[in-house]
What does this fold into?
Amino acid sequence: MTAPRQIRVNAFDMNCPTHLVAGTWRDPESRASEYKDLAYWTDLARTCERGLMDGIFIADVLGVYDVFGGSPDGALRGGAQVPVNDPALVVPAMAAVTEHLGFGITASTSFEHPYTFARRMSTLDHLTKGRVGWNIVTSYLESGARNIGLDAQVRHDNRYDIADEYMEVLYKLWEGSWEDDAVVADPARNLYADPEKVHPIEHDGTYFKVPGIHLSEPSPQRTPLLYQAGQSNRGKRFAAEHAEAVFMGAPRPEILRANVDDLRGRLVDAGRDPHDIRVFSSFSVVVAPSAAEAEEKRERYRALIDPEGTLVLWSGWLGYDLEPYDLDEPLRHVPNEAMQSTNEIFGDGRWTVRDFVEGLGFGADGPSATGDPAAVADQIEDWIDTTGADGINLNHVVTQQSYVDFVDLVVPELQRRGRYRTTYEEGTLRDKFFGRGSRLPDTHRAARHRRHPAGAPA
Amino acid sequence: MTAPRQIRVNAFDMNCPTHLVAGTWRDPESRASEYKDLAYWTDLARTCERGLMDGIFIADVLGVYDVFGGSPDGALRGGAQVPVNDPALVVPAMAAVTEHLGFGITASTSFEHPYTFARRMSTLDHLTKGRVGWNIVTSYLESGARNIGLDAQVRHDNRYDIADEYMEVLYKLWEGSWEDDAVVADPARNLYADPEKVHPIEHDGTYFKVPGIHLSEPSPQRTPLLYQAGQSNRGKRFAAEHAEAVFMGAPRPEILRANVDDLRGRLVDAGRDPHDIRVFSSFSVVVAPSAAEAEEKRERYRALIDPEGTLVLWSGWLGYDLEPYDLDEPLRHVPNEAMQSTNEIFGDGRWTVRDFVEGLGFGADGPSATGDPAAVADQIEDWIDTTGADGINLNHVVTQQSYVDFVDLVVPELQRRGRYRTTYEEGTLRDKFFGRGSRLPDTHRAARHRRHPAGAPA
It folds into this structure.
């Protein structure tokens, strides 16, 4: 009999007033409108490290949710992912007040050239001493594309072809340009870096031409820990080839189980170990010392859920305007194309607008557990053991109270059950995830771009 | 008789081992190779705030100095502005440990789309509570242009035309998109932002098309404090139209005086007050409690100056390879075009390579003062009073010792003379600079893009 698997927990947040649960920014305990302040982020980081979480992941969009009603008005009224500030810039301050916590940021392969993006991530990996992850996003809101001068989004599959080459450029810069011992920094030899060990990448591809060397010296992890969340077929293939962790959403365990199994199979096809990816499943928690208090808290939160803000978000995710519907009208008129991703996630597609608002208001694309610490821990354990996921991506219902409650109440319960770390492992974020060092394994496609001391790629 | 002008001091650094003085990273006291660590930056910020400096400015290049010898080898050996990490990412950590210090970063109008850059700067202005400045750069190293897929740099003047439109897009986003009272954040009204007061900028220009709203809510300064350093005729015009502070380099006071006077005249032409720009002049200091100790320290530093690294930097600045020259060979073969900017700065152009290495090794493009605190303060006072500059841009000879010495020894001396603040003014960086609030004045061209409560531009 093997020991029960440790459950990983990642805090999921966004640099904006409303991330996934609309309306709860109005709770008296909510700190949502402090998102602009450094103290919001340093406090959150301290809480998550106190709770021995793996990391904080910061979502991002470069654009506004303007599908609902055909305008950004509803999004603005609810602070629904707009206004939204840059996620990378809060990481250095959080790193300064923590020692072990990881930091993930979302960034699209469509908004910044890989040459400059590579340096930005290397800088973060240096400053955090190897605690940075990157959620690779290829898609983005249509409104964002328009604002950088693109008339329409690049077709979905082509976007992934561009992303594949984007990754290749990054791997060459991160893994191939500087040999491990290129930086000498020896005053006696009057040598900071040995030019013989720093190589121009000479990338001349279909979408990018990058002849030169990487601007940053090797950082602890080189390539940041790679996350991905694509749920399309092409997106899953991309994840299987690149990602070390994925975010998955599913309201029912059998759907998640199928997706997890599918992904692990794809990893084998890509020449990797099926457990080379950690799966984080969307989850939200309303917990209190007693079941009655938890129900009371849930009711208080539920009363704050804002229908409009919820539909603004769902209209954006579906790419379909839910504004003309009455609350109890079935969504039978929604074209199949728009509902496809939702059908995949929720099974039968028989939804009313009220289902989105009331049923999904707390969990977005995952389950929501309410109860005392034991009940919540039961549900989390059951979810993890049934689905084969490695951990949960903890959404907040009310920030930062949801995280504080989880750390104070659920973490000790999971620890008592032997399902949660009681101290951090040493090392970088990647080392904490897989326990085999800071670098990507040799089976990862990035490894083929490494240069070895002889000077040529292996 | 008016009170003597207060002298402003800005610390000038870069996220790399060697900024302006090559070879001194080898000094036992140097922390140059710690540039990758957060502690380097938080310590520097604390020192500068202890010394009541205006701010820390972080230079940047996106490319390598590969003119010398036609390769980046010399730059790598000396750590001469390569490796170089992103400057913006060290700001949030420095902001977290300070209250008044300003932070300036260099960023080019050629490497990032204004829509995403606007959000990055707004985020910094929020996180620092209005303490951020931006050094607007239009030029960059040829090697950087190649690595983002450009075959050659855009012609110099055209670059400024693009930059003018880039600024227009930014002003619309920063000043025009959100009215002052657009963010309500009122739970009782269930209203985070009032859509009636958030406006798409509908920019449809020659180089950029940005139809949408700014993604960030109004930050304390809106537009960050604007710096510029261009010394060409077109660059000076750009500065006169946009900048609130400029960096100027000159080895002799009469040259700086002429440039300062010229700039103030150009401001009047642009409809601004001649003192709407603060001029910071490059300066370096080697100071010790006694003159003898200072001379000893200077001699120790001088012995560390690395000829190759110095010539790597100068070859890059001149765009002309100094590698084939003997140390004492006059530079008479340098084409006039390459020497033009240097002739402007240094007067007669009769230089040998040794002049660059020995005469300029400490000061880069400004004077260097050595002595006890009184002697150094004399030289700074004299320099400021003769040239009409507002302050000095303090380069380090050895980091961070040069800053620590300045704060411990020179600041108290200038304070005794009534030439240096003894406490910080309240308010944002712009307010500390001009004492008239956090926003750009109505005479600045950005102001024409503001919307007033009526909803239309004034």
